[in-house]
Write a structure and sequence with these properties.
This is Putative phospholipid:diacylglycerol acyltransferase 2. By secondary structure, the protein is of the alpha+beta class. The chain is built from 5 helices and 7 strands, in the order ααββββββαβαα.
């Protein structure tokens, strides 16, 4: 696991060259180009719907025309989370082997975010920060084509703190993907919003990660 600040890992991963199956080194922007192509191309391709009811919610991240509504992205941060992998070719016998596998011999320098062929970044142990917070940080922020009425979006991050003893069970300040459901601060935020408080009334945004800076680097027509 990386020993340096996870925010540095989120930046460093964008500068690392990735290896193609044949061992050829691509240019440093290879990974980002693949991320744009595979992860973001489908979203960027989406044309705005004329009516919310005509959009399939599982395919189009279009919000309804509800300017008084508020959107919250609530998630944990501060735990090394898998984001990318270094692969190598498998034996030539494709009938018996998957054609590629994670190269567990790939390690970065001491304190690097690369460990045994896996790149770690900030997240909740299951979901990287950029996946959890991008839509609230940029995709839905302001009057974008995915948020035509300009409803307010709020990011509330919960920094992981492991339980001090077994008496705490899975923790009251956990930011882990499932254990966050027992996070007292998260529960308080949910209850206050459900009781009618606005995002400003619960304290506005609470951000520990580099989600805003990372989101700005993603080129998406909004």
């Amino acid at each position: 696991m990386p020993s340096e600040p996870l925010s540095n890992c989120s930046t460093m991963i964008e500068k690392k060259p990735y290896f193609k199956p044949n061992g050829e080194k691509p240019n440093p922007n290879y990974y980002l180009s693949q991320l744009d192509r595979v992860t973001l191309s489908r979203m960027a391709y989406l044309a705005p719907c004329d009516k919310f009811d005509e959009c399939k919610p599982e395919e189009k991240p279009l919000l309804p025309n509800a300017p008084d509504m508020e959107i919250y992205c609530l998630y944990g941060v501060g735990i090394p989370t898998e984001r990318a992998y270094v692969y190598k070719s498998s034996p030539a016998d494709k009938c018996k082997h998957i054609p590629f596998r994670i190269d567990s011999s790939a390690d970065g320098d001491e304190g690097s975010c690369l460990n045994s062929g896996v790149y770690f970044v900030d997240g909740d142990e299951s979901v990287p920060v950029i996946s959890a917070g991008f839509m609230c940080a940029k995709g839905w922020r302001g009057g974008t084509r995915f948020n035509p009425s300009g409803m307010a979006t709020y990011i509330r991050e919960y920094k992981h703190k492991a339980p001090a003893s077994l008496l705490e069970g899975r923790g009251t300040e956990s930011g882990a993907h499932v254990d966050i459901m027992g996070n007292v601060a998260l529960i308080e935020d949910v209850l206050r919003v459900a009781a009618g408080s606005t995002g400003k009334e619960i304290g506005g945004e609470k951000i520990y990660s580099d989600i805003l800076a990372m989101s700005e680097k993603i080129n998406l027509q909004l």
